[in-house]
Amino acid sequence: MPTYEYYCEANGQSIDVVHAMSTEMTTWGELCNIADIACGDTRLDAPVIRQLSAIASLIPKGGSGPRGGTSGGKGGCCGGGCGCNR
Question: What is the pLDDT of residue 31?
Answer without folding.
Answer: 95
